[in-house]
Amino acid sequence: MKLSGKFFLAILSLSLLSYGISGAAYAAAAPISVETNKDFYVEGTTITISGFVKDFDTSDPLQSTDVTVI
After folding, report:
1. Whole-prediction pTM value?
2. Which helix (H) or strand (E) holds 10?
3. Confidence class of residue 63 from pLDDT cuts 50, 70 and 90?
């Protein structure tokens, strides 16, 4: 393989890798956050769960869904 071919392959590989890295960094922005009212619980204690959905529009009927906690 010629030197120019190896150089082109290296540039192509780096550009593909950098695309994957930037996508992973974008995924770090969580659209949902959840928290509880205590760090530890004993048996029989009531657990209060609250949260926030980023950019949630209550007027959009297509975004109205049930939440299941397992």
Report:
1. 0.40
2. helix 3-26
3. low
